[in-house]
Description:
By secondary structure, this protein is of the alpha/beta class. 43% of the residues lie in helices and 17% in strands. The protein folds into two domains: 5-10 and 258-361, Aspartate Aminotransferase, domain 1; 16-256, Aspartate Aminotransferase, domain 2, CATH 3.40.640.10. It has helices at 16-22, 32-49, 62-73, 87-98, 116-125, 147-156, 205-213, 223-230, 241-257, 259-280, 304-315, 341-354, 356-361; strands at residues 5-6, 54-58, 79-84, 102-107, 129-135, 137-138, 143-144, 160-164, 183-187, 199-203, 283-285, 293-297, 317-318, 320-321, 330-334. The model has no long low-confidence stretch (mean pLDDT 96).
Amino acid sequence: MVNYRLFTPGPVEVSEEVLEEHGKRFPYHRDRSFAEVVGRVTEDLKKILFTDSRIFFFTSSGTGGMQAALVNLFSEGDEVLVTSIGKFGQRWKELADTFRLKVTYLPFEFGQSVDPAMVDDALRANPLIKAVLSTFTETSTGAKNDVKTMGEIVGRHDKIFVLDSIAGLIADELRMDAWNVDVAIGGSQKAIGAPPGLSIVALNERAWKLAENSTLPKYYFNMKIAESFRQKGFTPWTPAITVMMSLAVSLKNFKERGIENVWADHAHWASFFREKAGQMGFSLFPKKPSNALSAIKMPDGVESTPIIREIKEEEGILFANGQAELKGKLIRFGHMGHANEQDTLKALEVLEKHALPRIKEIG
């Protein structure tokens, strides 16, 4: 049995109401009652994303959604621009390399955000680039990209903008159509507030034209197959039915609160946490953070790994470590799924108790 609460930036703690729905008896995936659930989820996602795009669901993590987007849009040898500000930007490159796309790689230091002017320069330098693959919120660092400005630039060059919005969706403002985002990818286990198991790919008509001509190999993630089922309200394969049911409840709650209010709540508690943590003496990372998570940077000589383990064992709370080159150097606290006063204050309390003394020891 799990004896700790998730204060991680995905998967997140989900509400009792959502957990209750997840535990209910579920319908047959070809029954009209399930198609009605898929329909409600689809329409609510369109409102939250501010889009009229097609929306596809795949039983996978967010990385599956990233792969689904890539294999359905491109053919071997197509040229793409990949921007990276952390581990998940690197993942775009790894996927593109795996499927033999020609990659122009634009990496930035972990913790930085993409410089939109450099995207403009890269697209000017190579008119053969078909699309830009980027990240909304980089979960490994907490950095957020200026998607609106990037979308203006990508649109001006008449390229396709593919966005991993898995961590930022719901927590940060995103207006897919108005910001020229052609493909947006999400995951059920992040700020959207449901259990893991579903990836979401919203894809507009410009991107669908590429999908109609893509020749990369695909079967389970084939959107042409999925499209015929989507039109009837179903998914092509047996989906994570109970996750879809849970997602319907979570999205209904967001819709009732109003997405602008949901963004504002995430912004408020993220800012509150960072202000108080800064006053305590913690060093915060990065400079342009998302509302989805906060990252505390450990000074030289202090490792985050034993602190995170101690908090889990003694307090029953799990924070996230850094990833890749930042493992042992960060403590990451997700505001997703529990952007509220109680959990924010509790996070600050246990960090003050377990992390701050070790930092003060080294001066």
